[in-house]
Structures are given as structure tokens and as C-alpha cells.
Write a structure and sequence with these properties.
Radius of gyration: 26 Å
Distance between the termini: 36 Å
Mean pLDDT: 89
Structural class: mainly beta
Helix content: 10-25%
Length: 558
């Protein structure tokens, strides 16, 4: 209730109406105590829903990057940043909002609306709070905290004795419109590129999103366009996706961290799907539809990049063209957490099932090289096995029947456990397994520096099966630099093993240990967690010496 009164003061004090509104706020249904509130405000919104209220007026408040009302935060560089920053326009928030005046209150829908706002790259935080309840309606405050989005992105990362860097001018909230525009130059382990990007979370004020990329590569070019109308709510009646890609580049092949071969490749793709909501029981949504896929791959001759014993890659020119059904199941069991993957931000994860499966039939009548099924299945599930513990699991399986045999059979499975038995401390246990049989030339399994084995060369070893394990202890301190960067520490152990090709069998276990800083960016929309660490390999081998290696950047996704 104190939060509602505070919001009332922010909105109504200029109208001289705060005192009456505060008394009216007492008329809002009192929240019932629940054993485990999954997200802030759940009990309060459930009480309002049970009372049968509707959404009334919806007020939007967009906070700037810094809170200058706080004297400790009111310094020259925060004032300069807030002066230069263009706040998100109210109409952008209203359009992205998934609740409308006059609709009956639904607590689940409120949380869906909050999550949708938090998912936007230009938002660092969002809440939806009831203000007053009068005449069967609840007045709502939507509080959005802007992130700093205009940046000269000079991101730098280092692992496995190699650097990745970016020099890009990017605004993920151009003129406060929610659109992303970017131009820049980037270098990865494999290539350099000049980049143009455009992203829109609400194309032409519709429910469609758009993403367009143009990349002038050091070894080719990439052009892509994607349009999507997602299931924004559990009850959204239908969704669709369409994407196109045209690229040519060199596929690089490594052994012991050294590039051995490259294979020129040209790829063209056109994909689309449409799904309809078949059933929703208040918790689980069942959806089904149709999907289509056209992919064409052509190759040049393999070129030796450096002396070595590895055999040349085998090109596999092909065309895939198929149509078939797609089915998905979504359980809405989302809950809010903090300081798991990020620092100082609310993170929302689904503890229910998300499953999708599609079976396309590639047909020569549609232009495919061969007839046969093309199968893809994906699933994820979250668990809370004990208090203060969260486990997130993901898995996928794909394969296709091509000229009488199965190809590109890929199995991926991973699980990450986060434990917070102590304040400001998160224990992380991650394991993933991957298997890849009869792969297409584009797909390879590696272990190495940027491949979750810090301290070793990148692309150190390749094979058909892989297991990786990471154990880490992450500590977030109350120390904040320049009101922007929250300082933390991390110690970690990475382990990996791979089943090598040509009958060599499983490699030995490769391990590394490390420690250093883990910095959370509290105000920006990019580079939210950066690592500045030292990692040391524990096993010496070809190309590996037991000495500390510098690992810098946003090198992990879990």
C-alpha cells in the first residue's frame, strides 16, 4: 500500500488530489497472503482480479537514466547523461502495453505486460502498480525506467589468446521511438565486418516486429530481414513469422586452435510459419499451424589455410524445400529473480514447459534435392527444487532424411542451477551435452576459449560429442562506480571433454580455473555483465601452456 500512496503522490500532487485519492486507495481489495509470491505485486493484483474490477485510466511514467532527485546521484556526469538522453515516448509504452482501459483485470496478464516491457532492450526496469480503486475500476501506474541507449559501442572481449572487438554507433531507442539503428565495424575470432542494423519492436504501430541486417564481411556479405507477429499474450489468437537470408562467406575449420581450412559458401533461406491458439485452460496454451522452409547451399573448393594433418572439409551442396505441421505447448509459470545471469535487474524465467515440434517434408516437387522428412523438436523447463534454488533446462533435437540416410542429427541438452543461500552470492552449476552426427559443413562442435573453456585457445578441439561443465561463485558487492557499474567478484572452474573424429576416441578432460571481477552495467542497454578475469589451464597439451590467460568481455550466456 505504501508503494501505491507513493505513486499517487507522483501523479496527483499537481492536481491537489492526493489526500482524497489516498483515502480511495484504501477501497482497493486487500491482498491475501500467499505462500510464495512469484513476482512483485502478484498477491495485490490477484485480489483486484477476484473483486471483478476493470482497468481504468492508465498513467505512464518514464524515468530517466539517473534519479537526479537523489542528491548523491545528482552530479555533473549524471546530469549531462539525462540531458542528452531522449526518454522513451509515452505513446511507445502505451503501444507496447498489453492491457487496455475497460478490460477486466487479470493478474497473469499484468505480469505478461510487465515482462513484455522488460524484454525491450531500451528498458532497464518496468512495473505496473494499482493506484486507486473506485467505481469498479482500478487506476494504473506504468513505471518504466529507461536505459542509456545511445552509445559508441567499443566492446572488447578476449579469450583463448584472441580478441573480439566492436566499434559501433548504436541507438536502441532512436529519438525515444523504441527503434534500433546501428552502424559500425566489428571483429570476431573468424572475420571482420561492417554492420548496418534496424530493429523495431512494433513495426508501424502494429503487433509485428522487424529486424533487418546488412553486413559487409571481410570474406563475404550478409543480408537478412525478419518479420514476426509473436504470441504476446497466452490468449493471443494467432502468430506468424517470416524471414529471409542471403549470405556468402568462408566457413573456417580449426584444429588445435589453428585454422586449417576454409570453405567458400553461399546460403539462401526463406522460412515462414503460422500458428493458431487451439486451447488455453488458464495456464497451458496449445497451438498448432503450418511451417515452410526453403534453403539453398552452394560451395567452392576447400582451401588450405595453414599446414596440418586434418583432412579437407567435404562440401555438401543441397536444396531443402518443405512444408509441414508445427505444434507447440506453452505453460505460463513465470517467476521473477535477481542476480542470476545479470546484475541489479529483475530477471523473469518460466518454470513451466515450453515445447515445440515441427515435421517438414522436403520434396523434389518443391525444388528440394531429395525427398524426406526434416524434424525439429525443442523443449525447456524450469524448476525450484529447494528454497533459494532455480534450475533451468533446455534441449533440442533435429535431423533430416536425405537420399535414404539421416543427416545432420543434432542433439543438444543443458541445465543450469542457480543457488542463492546467502545474500549477494550466487552459486552456479552448468552442464551441457551436444552430439552431432553426419553434419552439414556449417555445423561443428568445438571446445576452447570462447566456447566455454576459458584459458584455452579458441576452437581448440573438435569432435562429434561434447560435454562442458562450469562451476562458479558470483558475488555482488554494494560498491557502485559512477552510479553506473556495480562491482562483483567471480571464481570459476571450466571443464570440457570431446569425442574426437577419425576414431581417436574421447579426449582427456580439459580444465581451467580463474577469478576476477564481474561488473554489472546498471544503466545501459548493452554489455550488461562484463568479465575482467584471469584463467589458467590445468592441463598442458599441444598449443597449451600452464600460464594465466586474460579473459575479458561478456563471454558467457548463463
Amino acid at each position: 500500500m505504501s508503494r501505491s500512496l507513493l505513486a499517487c503522490g507522483a501523479i496527483l500532487v499537481g492536481l491537489g488530489a492526493c489526500a482524497p485519492a489516498a483515502r480511495a486507495a484504501l477501497a482497493c481489495p486487500q491482498p491475501m497472503e500467499i505462500a510464495h509470491e512469484r513476482w512483485a505485486g502478484e498477491a495485490q493484483w490477484l485480489a483486484i482480479q477476484r473483486a471483478g474490477l476493470h482497468y481504468g485510466a492508465i498513467d505512464v511514467r518514464v524515468d530517466n537514466v539517473y534519479n537526479l532527485a537523489n542528491p548523491r546521484e545528482d552530479v555533473w556526469y549524471t546530469r549531462t547523461a539525462d540531458f542528452l538522453h531522449i526518454r522513451t515516448r509515452d505513446w511507445v509504452v502505451h503501444h507496447l502495453l498489453l492491457i487496455r482501459p475497460g478490460e477486466p483485470v487479470n493478474a497473469r496478464q499484468v505480469y505478461e505486460a510487465i515482462r513484455h516491457l522488460r524484454e525491450q532492450s531500451f528498458v532497464r526496469g518496468a512495473d505496473i502498480t494499482p493506484i486507486t480503486c473506485t467505481d469498479g475500476a482500478v487506476r494504473v501506474l506504468v513505471d518504466v525506467r529507461d536505459a542509456w541507449t545511445l552509445k559508441l559501442d567499443t566492446r572488447f572481449a578476449r579469450a583463448g589468446n584472441a580478441n573480439e572487438w566492436r566499434f559501433k554507433l548504436e541507438d536502441s531507442n532512436f529519438l525515444g521511438s523504441g527503434q534500433t539503428l546501428a552502424i559500425g565495424h566489428q571483429k570476431t575470432v573468424e572475420r571482420s565486418m561492417n554492420v548496418l542494423e534496424f530493429l523495431s519492436p512494433a513495426l508501424l504501430d502494429t503487433d509485428w516486429t522487424a529486424a533487418a541486417y546488412y553486413e559487409d564481411l571481410s570474406d563475404g556479405k550478409l543480408e537478412s530481414l525478419a518479420l514476426s507477429k509473436p504470441f504476446l499474450l497466452d490468449t493471443t489468437p494467432w502468430a506468424a513469422d517470416v524471414s529471409a537470408l542471403d549470405q556468402y562467406l568462408n566457413l573456417n575449420f580449426y584444429d588445435a586452435g589453428m585454422q586449417q581450412w576454409y570453405l567458400p559458401q553461399r546460403e539462401r533461406q526463406l522460412e515462414g510459419d503460422w500458428q493458431k491458439l487451439l486451447d488455453f485452460d488458464g495456464e497451458t496454451a496449445l497451438r498448432a499451424g503450418i511451417a515452410m522452409d526453403y534453403e539453398h547451399y552452394a560451395y567452392g573448393m576447400p582451401v588450405r589455410a595453414s599446414p596440418g594433418d586434418s583432412p579437407p572439409p567435404v562440401p555438401y551442396p543441397r536444396t531443402l524445400a518443405g512444408v509441414g505441421p508445427i505444434v507447440s505447448l506453452h505453460q505460463d509459470h513465470y517467476a521473477s529473480f535477481e542476480n542470476l545471469r545479470e546484475v541489479g535487474r529483475v530477471e523473469d524465467y518460466n518454470l513451466g514447459w515450453d515445447v515445440s515440434a515441427q515435421v517438414l517434408y522436403d520434396s523434389t516437387a518443391l525444388g528440394a534435392t531429395a525427398d524426406g522428412p526434416n524434424v525439429s523438436v525443442k523443449a525447456s523447463k524450469g524448476f525450484e527444487p529447494w528454497p533459494q534454488w532455480l534450475v533451468l533446462t533446455d534441449g533440442s533435437l533435429m535431423a533430416r532424411r536425405d537420399s535414404g540416410s539421416w543427416r545432420n542429427e543434432a542433439l543438444d541438452a543443458e541445465a543450469t542451477a542457480y543457488g542463492q543461500p546467502w545474500r549477494r552470492q550466487t552459486l552456479v552449476f552448468h552442464v551441457d551435452y551436444a552430439s552431432l552426427l553426419h553434419p552439414d559443413p556449417e555445423n561443428r562442435l568445438y571446445i576452447g576459449g570462447f566456447q566455454a573453456l576459458r584459458g584455452y585457445p579458441n576452437f581448440y578441439a573438435t569432435g562429434t560429442q561434447r560435454v562442458r561443465i562450469t562451476i562458479a561463485d558470483r558475488i555482488v558487492t554494494p560498491m557502485v562506480w559512477f552510479h553506473t557499474f556495480q562491482v562483483g567478484f567471480v571464481v570459476f572452474n571450466d571443464d570440457a571433454i570431446i569425442d574426437r573424429p577419425a576414431g581417436q576416441g574421447w579426449s582427456p578432460w580439459y580444465s581451467s580455473v580463474g577469478a576476477g571481477f564481474r561488473i554489472g552495467n546498471l544503466r545501459g542497454s548493452f554489455n550488461r555483465v562484463l568479465y575482467f578475469t584471469i584463467a589458467e589451464p590445468l592441463r598442458t597439451d599441444i598449443g597449451v601452456r600452464r600460464r594465466p590467460q586474460v579473459v575479458v568481455g561478456d563471454v558467457l550466456t548463463f
